């Protein structure tokens, strides 16, 4: 909350120099969007992986070779 107070003070002080100081207020919603995106992307990426849990995991060459041997010899 103090960040908003500091930005307000900066806007008031800069408004003595220039009339475009109020653009500094745009830092508040930009920062909010940045934080929400940063926190929600990991959650959303886990949501998309739910379907891939049922798929078979990738096999190494050695595992594939051993499976072929088992099928060939019936073990």
Automatic annotation (TrEMBL):
<dbReference type="Pfam" id="PF05620">
    <property type="entry name" value="TMEM208_SND2"/>
</dbReference>
<protein>
    <submittedName>
        <fullName>Uncharacterized protein</fullName>
    </submittedName>
</protein>
<feature type="region of interest" description="Disordered">
    <location>
        <begin position="48"/>
        <end position="75"/>
    </location>
</feature>
<keyword id="KW-0472">Membrane</keyword>
<dbReference type="GO" id="GO:0006624">
    <property type="term" value="P:vacuolar protein processing"/>
</dbReference>
<comment type="similarity">
    <text>Belongs to the TMEM208 family.</text>
</comment>
<keyword id="KW-0256">Endoplasmic reticulum</keyword>
<dbReference type="InterPro" id="IPR008506">
    <property type="entry name" value="SND2/TMEM208"/>
</dbReference>
<dbReference type="GO" id="GO:0005789">
    <property type="term" value="C:endoplasmic reticulum membrane"/>
</dbReference>
<feature type="transmembrane region" description="Helical">
    <location>
        <begin position="6"/>
        <end position="37"/>
    </location>
</feature>
<feature type="compositionally biased region" description="Basic and acidic residues">
    <location>
        <begin position="56"/>
        <end position="75"/>
    </location>
</feature>
<keyword id="KW-1133">Transmembrane helix</keyword>
<keyword id="KW-0812">Transmembrane</keyword>
<dbReference type="GO" id="GO:0005773">
    <property type="term" value="C:vacuole"/>
</dbReference>
């Amino acid at each position: 909350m103090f960040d908003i107070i500091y930005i307000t003070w900066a806007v008031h002080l800069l408004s003595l120099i220039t009339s475009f100081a109020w653009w500094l207020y745009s830092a508040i919603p930009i920062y909010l969007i940045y934080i929400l995106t940063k926190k929600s992307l990991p959650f959303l990426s886990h949501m998309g992986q739910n379907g891939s849990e049922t798929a078979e995991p990738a096999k190494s060459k050695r595992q594939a070779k051993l499976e072929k041997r088992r099928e060939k010899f019936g073990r």
